[in-house]
Amino acid sequence: VxxxxxxxxxxxxxxxxxxxxATSVMMVxxxxxxxxxHGGMKALPTVVLGMLAAAIPxxxxxxxxxxxxxxxxxxxxxxxYDRTIVPPVxxxxxxxxxxxxxxxxxxxxxxxxxxxxxxxxxxxxxVRRVFSIAxxxxxxxxxxxxxATFAYASGDLAAxxxxxxxxxxxxxxxxxxxxxxxxxxxxxxxCLISAVGFAAIAAVCFRLIRGRRRSAAE
Length: 218
Hints:
- This protein is mostly helical.
- About 75% of the residues lie in helices and about 0% in strands.
C-alpha cells in the first residue's frame, strides 16, 4: 500500500489549488455577503451570482475555462493554460462559489446591528466596522468557512479534470486514474489519506464553530 511519500506530489498540488481557490472565494464572498446581510435588493448580486454558479454543470465549467484559455493565437494564454494553475483555480472558484456565498452570508448577517451602530456613533469608519467588528466577531466562523471551501475545492473532479495541466495531478484526478487502471491498493491508500484529511478538517471546523458559540454565550 502506498504511503504519504508516494502521493506527495498529488497531495501538495491539491493543497495548493485548494488554498488558492478557497482564498479567492473568500475575497469574493466577504464583500458580497456583507452587502447582502440585510436582504432586499442589496442581496440580489449575491443571489444571482450564487444561482448562476450553482446552475452550471461542473464539466461545462471546465469547458468554458478551456474556451477562455485554449487560444493558439495568444501565446500568453496558451502558456497560462499549459503551465500554470490559473485554469484549474478558476474552475474550482466557480464550483465553490455557491457554498462560500451562502456560508459568508449566514455568518455576516448574524453580526448585531446595534454593535455596528454604536461603533458608527463612536466615529468608526465603514472599513473599520467591517474589519474590526464584523470580521473580528466572526473570525472563527470565517476560518471554518475557509476550511469548508478548501475541502470542497480539494475534492472536486468534474470541473478541474479538464483543465489541470498535463504534468500535474490532484488527488481526485489520481484516484480517477487508479480506479480505471484497477490499482486497488494505491486507490485504497489515497482514499484513506483523503478521508483522514477531510475528517480532520471537519473536526477543526466543528471546534471553531463550537468556540464561537461558547464565546457568544459568555
